[in-house]
What does this fold into?
Amino acid sequence: MNPENYPAMCEALTNATSLCIRLYEGREQLCSNCIFPLEPDPVILYIDELISLPNTAGVLVTDLYQFYGYVSLNNNLRLIAGPSSIPTKEPKQLDSLMALLNVPQASRPEYAHKLCCAPDFSLERMIWAMRFLTTVLTQQPVPPEDFCVSTPVRDIHHHIHREESFQGVPMEDTAAALENMQDIEHEQNIQNAFELEKLMVFYVTHGEVEHLGRLLTSMPRARAGEMARDSLRQLKNMGICSAAVASRAAIEGGLSNQTAFGLSDIYIQKIELLNSPTAIHMLINELFMDFARRVQQTKYGIKNASPLFLKCAQYVSAHLFQHIRIDDMATELNYSRPYLCGQFSRQTGITLTNYILTEKVNEGKYLLQFSELSLSEIALRLSFSSQSHFQSVFKKITGITPMEYRRSVK
It folds into this structure.
């Protein structure tokens, strides 16, 4: 394969599997693609073994029962996929993992949330996915003796070492493990659906069109609860629920009640007229994106985002947890400060400073809802000069204090 195609291959595999896909040449990472990018990448705890394992392909099972798959390619290349989600999501286990990764305390709630949103691959599913990739990428099936299921040298809790051939696992142990995993996977599917719904609602509420689009095009697997015996009716019911959830999220984001409920009714009518599962899935994605775009337009007073606005939005998003200086932004974006501030205000109706503060407050809302961080920790994380500064900006933009907001969403 042409090396220029490696990034496109990683992106395609990520979108197909929802797994983070990386390509290494020896110990040098050539490319990486992930729906929920994590910094630091948890693979660093296991990369030595994933690179050095002698088998053509295999799965590494961590002590938290996450799975990393790998496939050896030509020219000393190795593809690494994972991790899968953590089945139990116990706080102590997550804390142990993040401590080894040196994740800053303030970043841990967001980091743990992204870990929990990883796809819930079962061991059996990961094995077949890696065998399929090996067959496709190497143009030959992987012999059973060249496929290995192993555990890492570095065990987070006990620092043990164990490596076993998948073919050598006793059948009775495998059957018991698979039965246990089915129960775990069922509970995990319910939790994943809840986590993903919260994330989608958050993106709609804040008009995060780009993030929502990325999530919807590479949605990790999560099953909804049973709402009907007929599969088509089940899907339609899910669409109706989605319209209701999205409309209420949009209202919270500033869209008028009349517009939101009217749009919801239109989408529900469209859903009822469809008889194709594919068409219904596409319409559900479309309705979430539509609501998010309308919230974004309401927030910024613009129907079509200009290149200048998008550059500013991307810069703010990338530096959200730092002290953002407009002079630095203007220099990096190759504009003069007066031109940048003037054009931004004319296009959006708000000042660039107010936009930056609004985005920081939106992130503060996320942390208040999904974490147990104190106000001082959130203020520090978002680079406010003090807790009182964060509180005054938050109240000015939202009309309520941070603690009032936290009580309203918990």
Q: What stands out?
A: Confidence is low (pLDDT under 50) at residues 154-175, 220-224. The first strand starts at residue 21 and ends at 25.
